[in-house]
Amino acid sequence: MKLLFKVIETPDVSNLTLEDKAADDEIKKWSEFDPDLILLAIRCDVRYTQEEYQIYKRIKRVLREQFVCPRLAVAFTFGDRLNTNIEDELKSVNPELQDVLTEARQQYVVFSIEDQEENKEKHFSKILDFVPEKGKQKTCAENLLSESTPELPQEDCHHIHKDNTTHASKRQLSLFPDEPRHNINVLIIGKTGNGKSTVGNSLLNHSAFCVTRGFASSTTKPETQSAQRYGVNITVTDTPDLSNMSVDGNDVDRGIQSWQTFQPDVILLTIRCDVRYTPEEFQIYKEIKKSLRDDYLCPRLTVAFTFGERLDRDIRDELKDVCTELKQVLEDADDRYLVFREEDDEETKRKHIIHLMTFVPNLEIEGEVKKILLLGPPKSGKSSGGDAIVGRPVFQAGTETVRTVSYITYVHDTWCQISIRARIMDNGVDE
Questions:
Q1: Fewer CB atoms inside 10 A, N or C side of the chain?
Q2: Where is mean pLDDT largest: 58-67, 364-373, 385-394?
Q3: 411 with 354, same domain?
Q4: DSSP secondary structure string, 301-337?
Q5: Does this model's pTM top 0.70?
Q6: What whole-number distance in Å separates Cα of residue 297 and Cα of residue 293?
Q7: What is the reported pLDDT for 412?
């Protein structure tokens, strides 16, 4: 069975720049996501504070204990900073944290900043085990949203931050994602003969682009084709080799910049993995990077190694001995790459599409949806925990998040949709 996991990250309650009543109303809206699991992020390298506990109690009171507790698990973060194992640490924690763990039925997972791939898989398996059966959960979102928020006792509000300024109380909050997307835009770049058209055909799963043999390129101007895959519309644009554009330098630069009009989510740089990467290819890449700018190209970049059927050994072994120029390209792509073979099977093609999906915000695909709600104060590491689940840094810890986004990934034969809530914080910066 294929499962789709959605992870929603929430703002810290103490930084909701609203009056108490308005903040409580916003907390109530979290129940509209009807999460299957609520992960409470807690740092395990510092003492659990009274303020954190009061925030947790407030959330539990607003959302109701019967809603929170059956879904609750703890995500201990910064596990790499522990001097002892977590079991020994938990023997001497304060009563407040003991209370949280009791209500979470001692369910917890430990995230480290530099978890190895096998650890990430163990984390995900453990998280799957935490998700209660649907029959044991009662959705009370409708009741929560229709009822008035109960008043909190003064002791529960003592550590909750208030901002009484007029502009803060009227601030617009983006609690839900932007309009969901059902499309992926892919731009393919590279040298003639590197298999750009073949890559495009593989992604679209049919012969959309003309593939020719010989020295002459069949692509003299950008060509766009689309196809439906997994309920998502994939649009692929095949671009010409710069050396075949037959224009002067300034026109080449303008031609490259015009590729941005295709609004690519992913830029695939095709490189043959059966021949040595040449200075000519690197020069083409540098020209493209100069025209598109690092901050535009690199976050979208993935290397598409072609002619993979001609490799004599594993691609990971091949990449240990590549030239400095190719190492630079891979560094720009944050070591993201795919290997394309002439006769890729359906499973391999599906993995290629899944990789593309991880770049597209607010993408919706077909499948059963499981949702995880992330709670935690600033610097609790909940963004890092979310990154560990999705498999790459999408939560952008330490940077300003201006809107709510979600990303797709695929782990253990399970579709995962990781959603990030917009920051609703005084300083606009996530942990």
A1: N
A2: 58-67
A3: no
A4: EEEEEE-GGG-SS-HHHHGGG--HHHHHHHHHTTT-E
A5: no
A6: 6
A7: 66
Is 97 within 8 Å of 51 (Cβ atoms)? no
**3-state class (DSSP) for residue 92:** helix
Are 16 and 351 in contact by the 8 Å Cβ rule? The answer is: no
b/e string for 115-128 if b means 16 or more Cβ within 10 A? beeeebeebbeebe
Same domain, 122 and 49: yes
Residues 339 and 397 in one domain: no
DSSP 18-79: S-HHHHHHHHHHGGGG--SEEEEEEESSSPPPHHHHHHHHHHHHHH-HHHHGGGEEEEEE-G
Residue 390 shares a structural domain with residue 411: yes
Q: Yes or no: say if 184 and 232 are a contact pair by the CB < 8 Å rule.
A: yes
Same domain (yes/no): 201, 331? yes
Q: Mean pLDDT over residues 77-86, rounded?
A: 89
Two tokens at 226?
């689309």
The C-alpha atoms of residue 195 and residue 10 are separated, in whole angstroms, by: 43
Q: Is 352 helix (H, G, I), strand (E, B) or coil?
A: helix
Structure tokens that stand for 420 in this block? 């990030």
Task: Render pLDDT for 206-245 as a digit per residue (tens, 0 to 9).
Answer: 999 988 765 555 567 899 999 998 778 999 999 998 876 5
Q: Among 340, 359, 378, give the residue marking a domain's end.
A: 359
- Phi/psi of residue 290, each to 5°? -65, -40
Q: What is the pLDDT of residue 402?
A: 44
- DSSP-derived letter for residue 260 is G
247-250-256 Cα angle (round to 5): 80
Report the DSSP pairing between strands 3-9 and 368-375: parallel
Side chain identity at 334, as an amino acid letter?
Answer: D
Rounded to 5°, angle at Cα 77 from 97 and 414? 110
pLDDT at 155: 37
| DSSP character string of 373-418 | EEE--TTSSHHHHHHHHHTS--S-TTSB--S-EEEEEEETTEEEEE
Is residue 37 domain-shared with residue 71, that is, in the same domain? yes
Q: How many C-beta neighbours within 10 Å does residue 365 have?
A: 19
CATH code at position 338? 3.40.50.300
Cα-based angle 329, 330, 336 (whole degrees, multiple of 5): 135
Whether 59 and 157 have beta carbons less than 8 Å apart is answered as: no
DSSP 262: G
Nearest to 339 by CA among 313, 303, 392, 312: 303
